[in-house]
Amino acid sequence: MKIYFCGSIRGGRCDAELYGRIIEQLQAYGPVLTEHVGFKDPILKDIEGDDVAIHTQDMAWLEESDVVVAEVTQPSLGVGYEIGRAVAWKKRILCLYRPTEGKGLSAMIRGAHDCKNFIVKDYQEAEVPGILKEFLGSS
Ligand SMILES: O=c1[nH]c(=O)n([C@H]2C[C@H](O)[C@@H](COP(=O)(O)O)O2)cc1CO
């Protein structure tokens, strides 16, 4: 099962280490095509290329993927775009959101929850193994 992981890059890297820990768990289920999203910034810079090349490569990986897992707590235009494209390609999508006082998840994400192909989960990090098992164990 090929997994496309989405997480903020230019939208802000405050959750980068958390992405890395989620990606590590995802790799027990199959290859994560976008594991660079969890790399520390110096490594990320090395693989950053021209924006057209990044977009072309990521869209190819997204189309090729079987499921999409997105950490959506840190808002990111790129992640929102990837999720929209994944919906259009009828991918199964899991969006993970850590509720924070004074902030809220976009209705364009929370409102897309359909209990089947588009799942939005409010979570704390300790719950990640169980959530992934429930979502990916049934794929
Ligand atoms: O260098 C990059 N490499 C890359 O793969 N992306 C993709 C993967 C991430 O899930 C998403 C992050 O978008 P943004 O940079 O707008 O936060 O876009 C985004 C960038 C930079 O925009």
Automatic annotation (TrEMBL):
GO BP field: deoxyribonucleoside monophosphate catabolic process; nucleoside metabolic process; purine nucleotide metabolic process
Gene Ontology CC, one term: cytoplasm
Any one GO molecular function term: 5-hydroxymethyl-dUMP N-hydrolase activity
UniProt superkingdom: Eukaryota
Gene3D superfamilies, A to Z: 3.40.50.450
Matching Pfam families: Nuc_deoxyrib_tr
Catalytic activity field: a pyrimidine 2'-deoxyribonucleoside 5'-phosphate + H2O = a pyrimidine nucleobase + 2-deoxy-D-ribose 5-phosphate; 5-hydroxymethyl-dUMP + H2O = 5-hydroxymethyluracil + 2-deoxy-D-ribose 5-phosphate; a purine 2'-deoxyribonucleoside 5'-phosphate + H2O = a purine nucleobase + 2-deoxy-D-ribose 5-phosphate
The entry's keywords: Cytoplasm, Glycosidase, Hydrolase, Nucleotide metabolism, Nucleus
Binding site for substrate: Y4, F5, C6, G7, S8, I9, R10, Y19, E82, S106, A107, M108
Main location: cytoplasm
Keyword Repeat tagged: no
Transmembrane feature ranges: none
Keyword Transcription regulation: no
InterPro entries in alphabetical order: 2'-dNMP_N-hydrolase, DNPH1, Nucleoside_deoxyribTrfase
Enzyme Commission no: 3.2.2.-
Locations listed in the record: Cytoplasm; Nucleus
HAMAP family the UniProt entry points to: Nuc_phosphate_hydrolase (MF_03036)
Protein family (similarity comment): Belongs to the 2'-deoxynucleoside 5'-phosphate N-hydrolase 1 family.
Subunit structure and binding partners: Monomer and homodimer.
UniProt-recorded name of the protein: Putative 2'-deoxynucleoside 5'-phosphate N-hydrolase 1
Annotated gene: DNPH1
